[in-house]
From TrEMBL:
Family matches, as Gene3D superfamilies: Lactate dehydrogenase/glycoside hydrolase, family 4, C-terminal, NAD(P)-binding Rossmann-like Domain
The name this protein goes by in its record: Malate dehydrogenase
Subunit structure: Homodimer.
Domain spans labelled Lactate/malate dehydrogenase C-terminal: 170-335
One Gene Ontology term, aspect cellular component: mitochondrion
Binding site for NAD(+): G30, G31, A32, G33, G34, I35, G36, D56, N117, I140, S141, N142, M249
GO molecular function: L-malate dehydrogenase (NAD+) activity
Keyword line: NAD, Oxidoreductase, Tricarboxylic acid cycle
Domain (Lactate/malate dehydrogenase N-terminal) ranges: 25-168
Protein EC: 1.1.1.37
Organism the protein comes from: Cladonia borealis
GO biological process: malate metabolic process; tricarboxylic acid cycle
Family membership: Belongs to the LDH/MDH superfamily. MDH type 1 family.
């Protein structure tokens, strides 16, 4: 008992001394939700975070009081809509994670969430543009293919759009793809890092297995691709009406935030696939696309090309682009009609 506590404290101390270079405030909007709570917990355990602010329409202060007792150095504050709560949660923030909004129930697509979540994300984006225009905005709320363009349009309308600082979090697709291939091949998932490009729903999720040296074919390949594209549905079905992925998403969101923090603190070569304002398919009218992105102190440092892919992967990409274009246009149109 004593030994394990001693080891834990020693690890914590090492982590603190390695990282306490820079003050980093992280804000979670929707911090009392299914994703928000474990994500906030993981951010509290991250020694790079010095201040953690949780905002939710309900329950932010309670979750913050609970997490705030954990013996890491960061200060935790919780806010709700009264008394300028949102503004206080956002002011001074370097990273804003947005998992606010409703999750799917069985039988729904992510697009079915649009009617509810589009206005939630629009209003939160307005608050970010006003209170922390220079923060990195990490959008988790679905449908990501549309909510990211909604944020961009709001930031543009307020004259503070910085395409290098807006990210749709697609890390869960990469996490799943890496786990699923390790299950198939009997490898260590920690050694797997499968590239996934496109967007974050159904056929817009395109795993590029060949880039990791794998050459599945036939049913094996079809099953793998299907599982990555519809991994979210697997969880929605299993939760049977109680929501969608929360714990794996919290891990994925925390991983992406950690990558940004590392890059902001000067680490080079930090690369994550993420859905950003991208030049890759702009000539086809597609302004946002997820591919490998090198992160840096200014957010997006470099957007990687897709690279070499197989004819099968090209077919998946072609199908992706058709849906993605519609999803993006829907977000842009929403802000035009409902500014
Ligand atoms: P949830 O219902 O458990 O939690 C959502 C939280 O948002 C609730 O606490 C709610 O009070 C809060 N909220 C609602 N409106 C708000 C507002 N205007 N301001 C602040 N907070 C608000 O849902 P969840 O399971 O945490 O999922 C949240 C979203 O994340 C869903 O849209 C879901 O589809 C999406 N999601 C995305 C990914 C991804 O890979 N990007 C993965 C899983 C889930
Ligand atoms: C996921 O991929 O798990 C999320 O987008 C949630 C969902 O609705 O599937």
């Amino acid at each position: 008992m004593f030994a394990s506590r001693h080891i834990f404290n020693a690890c914590q101390r090492r982590a603190f001394s390695a990282s306490a270079k820079q003050a980093s405030k992280v804000t979670v909007l929707g911090g009392a939700g299914g994703i928000g709570q474990p994500l906030s917990l993981l951010m509290k355990l991250n020694p790079r975070v010095t201040e953690l602010a949780l905002y939710d329409i309900k329950g932010g202060p309670g979750v913050a009081a609970d997490i705030g007792h954990i013996n890491t150095k960061s200060n935790v504050t919780g806010y709700q809509p009264d008394a300028d709560g949102l503004k206080k949660a956002l002011t001074g923030s370097e990273i804003v994670l947005i998992p606010a909004g409703v999750p799917r129930k069985p039988g729904m697509t992510r697009d079915d969430l649009f009617n509810t979540n589009a206005s939630i994300v629009r209003d939160l984006a307005k608050a970010c543009a006003d209170s922390c225009p220079d923060a990195n905005i990490l959008v988790i709320s679905n449908p990501v293919n549309s909510t990211v363009p909604i944020c961009a349009e709001i930031f543009k309308s307020k004259g503070v759009y910085n395409p290098k600082r807006l990210f749709g979090v697609t890390t869960l697709d990469v996490v799943r793809a890496s786990r699923f291939i390790s299950q198939h091949k009997g490898t260590d998932p920690a050694d797997e890092n499968i590239t996934v490009v496109g967007g974050h729903s159904g056929v817009t999720i395109v795993p590029l297995l060949s880039q990791s040296g794998y050459s599945l074919s036939g049913k094996d390949l079809d099953d793998f691709v299907y599982r990555v594209q519809y991994g979210g549905d697997e969880v929605v079905k299993a939760k049977d009406g109680a929501g969608s992925a929360t714990l794996s998403m919290a891990m994925a969101g925390a991983r992406f935030a950690e990558s940004l923090l590392k890059a902001a603190q000067g680490q080079k070569g930090v690369v994550e696939p993420t859905f950003v304002d991208s030049p890759l398919y702009k000539d086809q009218g597609i302004d946002f696309f997820s591919s490998k992105v090198e992160l840096g102190p200014n957010g997006v440092e470099q957007i990687h090309e897709i690279g070499k892919i197989t004819p099968e992967e090209q077919k998946l990409l072609d199908a992706c682009l058709v849906d993605l274009k519609k999803n993006i246009a829907k977000g842009v149109e929403f802000v035009k009609q409902n500014p």
